[in-house]
Model the fold of this input.
Amino acid sequence: MKCSTEALQTFLDGELELAETEAVRSHLGGCPACRQELSRLRLLWLELEQEDEVEIPAALPFIRQQAITKARAAGQDKIGTSSVSLWNAQKLAWQPVLAGVSRIPGTRQLGLLARLAGHGLPGAIKGVSSMAGKIIGKRRDRH
Amino acid sequence: MNTDAEQNLIIRCREGDEGAWRLLLARYEIYVYRLCRQIGGSSEDAVDLTQEALVKVLTGLDSFQLGRPFKPWLRQVTVNACLNCLRRRAPETISLEQPVAEDIVLGDTIAGNTGDPAHAAEWRDARDVLRQAMSKLPYQQRLVLVMRHQEGLSYEEIAAATDLPLGTVKTYLYRARQQLRRKLAGVYGWE
Ligand SMILES: [Zn+2]
Done:
């Protein structure tokens, strides 16, 4: 076989047929350039397989709550809204958001949310965080 | 959680039990967020993608086949939600003239960096360079990379999870890794 980085990639992925694997092995035996390339690709593979440190946002419980609200609204659409009065629908839509607010343990997370809100949080969460901002404001006034 | 308990939880979710919804999402939202973060390429996008994905999980549970492992289904729903969101956006296809980072232009990197690679290595380690490069890839390429190297899926499994043809999966993987390999070459000063 000829030198082929594509074959080397597939080889490293363990996705070659048995015969192809043998062909690559024997080629590697006689080709220092491909051996070097393989060791470089191995390095890349190691980097790619590292568990990426992803910072989990403190807003995740809010996102969960919003998802539940949306999912329930979608379910109601499916059933048909005729049996649900407008007020009930609004109440349903707001309850989980408010429940989410009351469950926030501290102002640190609120501050983080407020900061996150500037970066493309969905509209409803922005609403919550601006409310949260007001709550913090009041507390500060009192002290 | 054992499989039985999980299946019971899913049954309760299907009945519209909101407590069960909350439990299910609390269990899996970090996994979904990580996936969205990796596929989306930025933490700004990840929040929107995660919410979209979690809604699809709750509204799509009827399509989950009880008795099967939940995670592959969850992965697929998340991937679909991400693809739908990312597709709707204006295409951010990368041109050779588009600045990749600060004053580096992709054309330079491909043609063999004009600057001193050893210098680049001094102020940025390989991990950062790769992460940056990954966030600049077309989202479909980033998607297959994540499926392969983080989720550990085979080519066939990636094709199934992403609804891409097998040949496309291979091509995207190859292109993405060639691009990243060039970045590594810059860091380590390979010729
Ligand atoms: Zn060779």
